[in-house]
Amino acid sequence: MYRIVARVLVVEGDAVLRAGLTASLTEAGHEVESASSGQAGVALARASNPDIVVFDLHLPDTSGLELCRTLRAPGTKRPSLFVLTAANEEADRVAAFEAGVDDYVTKPHSMRELVLRVRALSRRRATSAPEDDLITIGSIKIDRAARRVDVDGASVELTRREFDLLLRLAERVSRVQTRDALVTEVWGELADSGRVVDTTVKRLRKKLGSVGASIKTVRGVGYKLIVG
C-alpha cells in the first residue's frame, strides 16, 4: 500500500468505471468517495473537502469544465483536479488546463498509470501543504487566506476582483489565461467580458507599481503573469 494517502472524490457517470476507479484507488491507500453526476460531486466536495477530484469532462447533468470552475471558485478549498475522459482533442485539453486542471488522462486508460498519477498529485500536495496559502512570484507575495498582497514587503490594497484576478494569474504563472476563462472564474457571466478584464488589469498594473509589467498582454488572447 502507498504511504501517501489522499482523500479522493471520483465523479464518473459510468457505474462500472466508477466502481473500478473506487476499488483501485482504495487499494492504493486513498480514502475514496464517488458520485455519478456533477451536482452530486459538488455536494460531496463541499461536504468532505477532498484533496483530489477525478472527473470526466462529459457528465450526465453538466460539463466537467463547469464542475472544474465551480470547484475553483473564489472562497472554496482548492482540490487538485484530475480529468479522465474520452475527449482527446487538443482543444479539449487546452480548455481543461485553462480551467485549472492539474492532470489529464484520456480513455481508454491504464489503471496502473492513473493510480500512479494520483499518487504523484498527492505527493505534490503533501510537499506544498505548509505553503499552500502563500504564493511568491519574484517580489510579489500573495496570501490566499488573508487575501493580502505585498510587493517588496509593502502591502498593496486591492479590490476583491483585482485580488481574484491576480490570484488566478499567479496560480498559473507563465501560462496564458484567456479573457473568457478569467471572466468566468472571477466575475461569472458578463456581456462585455473583454472590457472588464482589460480595465481591471490596467488598474492592477498601476497598483502593483514596479512589478505591474509582470502582467503581460497576449494580443488577441488574454494575459499571463511572468516571474519578474
Q: Would you mind describing this structure in some detail?
A:
The protein has 228 residues and is an alpha/beta fold. It folds into 2 domains: 7-130, 3-Layer(aba) Sandwich (Rossmann fold); 133-225, Winged helix-like DNA-binding domain superfamily/Winged helix DNA-binding domain (Arc Repressor Mutant, subunit A), CATH 1.10.10.10. It is built from 8 helices and 12 strands. The strands form 3 sheets. It has a 5-stranded parallel sheet with strand order 2-1-3-4-5, with helices on both faces. The mean pLDDT is 84.
Topology:
Layout: E1 7-11, H1 15-27, E2 31-35, H2 38-48, E3 52-55, H3 64-71, E4 80-85, H4 90-98, E5 103-106, H5 111-128, E6 134-137, E7 140-143, E8 148-151, E9 154-156, H6 160-171, E10 177-178, H7 179-186, H8 193-208, E11 215-218, E12 222-225
Parallel strand pairs: 1-2, 1-3, 3-4, 4-5
Antiparallel strand pairs: 6-7, 7-8, 8-9, 10-12, 11-12
Helix pairs in contact: 2-3, 6-8, 7-8
